[in-house]
Amino acid sequence: MLKELNIIKFKVLEDTKLEIKPLTIFCGENSSGKSTAIIACMLAGNYKNYTSYIKDRIIAVNGKIEYTFSNNINSSINIDNGVIQENQNKNIKYTFLQADRVSPDKQYDITTDDNLGIRGEYAPYIYSIKQHDNIVELSINNDNENDINTTLRSQTAYWMKYILGTTVKADRQADKVSLYYQAPHDVEAYSPLNTGFGTSMVFPILIACLTAKIGDTVIIENPEVHLHPKAQSKLADFFAFIAQLGVQVILETHCEHLIYKLCYNVNQGIIDYDKVVFQYKEINKPFQAIYTDKKGRFVDKENNQRKFPTGFFDATLTDYLKIYR
């Protein structure tokens, strides 16, 4: 797992040292440098799966990034006028999903490898060929396999129902895959085209995390896109569960529902407090590392209670209460 990165004059970030936990959340103002930090994380591993995405964003850029991994191995990578110096120590294997994920469609393409695609466009195919794989290490209720089956299919169904109230099945043809969703009260399954965008946004996230191995990393931009606040909160439960089991999850988000629910997961013991960090960024200011204590309250590195930076949660409880005064 990625443990720390030191970014030296890379795009908008200069002399930036970031602690990366099993569950790391980048948040803050738009165009402040969060995506640059995400790219820096990506360069620590199998970035050639995402070459076009990265190179389009580092044209004519110079910089250096130094990495420390959980096994205490160090490595670094240089960028010289947009050219990436090969990293000899690829110490993380990761899956990346960008914010612009695949839209609902009648059919989805197949691929020749295990890459889900940067938009999650191959998630239906990967699911179709791996749905019967046993993923007991990442399964809910994995201490009692009789309660919930530990196949990818059953675990995906569980989380789809928990987050969105629907289940999913795949139909593989020769060179395409069709998905169908079905809510408990529905008589027949229906095409993604007959449901909201949120369903198609969640599905590749689940597949990315549930097909990962312990020690792998999943990096996701704006997992909350197109989701109802309740679903955003339940997605936070999923991330806390997966990260606690040993898959590193790195998120970039603007969603207060997700952030607060992650704190609640700490409070409830779903994930250990020392496995979570929020890296908050404002324009022209350094990142602020924000942690939680065992009760899920925001604290600094010395465990002193603190508030989240002013301006992120624009409407506070105090503001809401004014309505009823």
TrEMBL record:
Record-annotated ATPase AAA-type core domain positions: 23-254
InterPro entries: ATPase_AAA_core, Bact_Antivir_Def_Nuclease, P-loop_NTPase, P-loop_UCP034888
Pfam family membership, one: AAA_21
Domain of life: Bacteria
PANTHER family: ATP/GTP PHOSPHATASE, EXCINUCLEASE ATPASE SUBUNIT
Protein name: ATPase AAA-type core domain-containing protein
Taxonomic source organism: Mucispirillum schaedleri ASF457
Lineage: Bacteria, Pseudomonadati, Deferribacterota, Deferribacteres, Deferribacterales
